[in-house]
Design goal:
five-stranded antiparallel sheet; 5 strands; 59 residues; single chain; mainly beta; globular; DUF2158
Length: 59
């Protein structure tokens, strides 16, 4: 499983969801952190489930 992410990069689940910051890298998962309002959240994800975050263009 290739893990090309770096700590501090912005990512998002391939299925959508909030913008997250890569907090830590481990052999089989990526630890990400994000906020929901003022509540801090943290969870581990498989690298294959993540993509780099890309701002949506406003029309």
């Amino acid at each position: 499983m290739a893990n090309n992410f770096k700590v501090g990069e912005l990512v998002q689940l391939k299925s959508g969801g909030p913008k997250m910051t890569v907090n830590a890298l481990y052999n089989n998962y990526v630890e990400c952190a994000w906020f929901t309002g003022s509540k801090a959240n943290k969870a581990n994800f498989q690298p294959d489930s993540l993509q780099y975050f890309k701002e949506e263009e406003k029309k």
